[in-house]
Amino acid sequence: MSEQMKQAIFSSLRSILIAVGSLLTTMGWVDDQTVQSVVGVVMVALPLIWGVYDKFAAERRTQAREAIAVQDTVASFTEGERS
Predict the structure, then answer these.
(1) pLDDT (mean) for 48-61
(2) In 21-77, which ranges are E strands?
């Protein structure tokens, strides 16, 4: 996923969280400071979690590509012995 797409998703999520928080504030269930704190925590934690997941996913993709390359090399070597 491109960096621009990630930024768009996070920006949209922040807007949605603020809208929901505004609604809850209007209803008197929470105060503005609580909404700002929750939005802040989510906007720090979510990219952190996403980054860790993305790193491990990239590592798995790299390992898969390496395994395929090794299999191709072994297959080529085996075919070469048969000739």
Answers:
(1) 89
(2) none
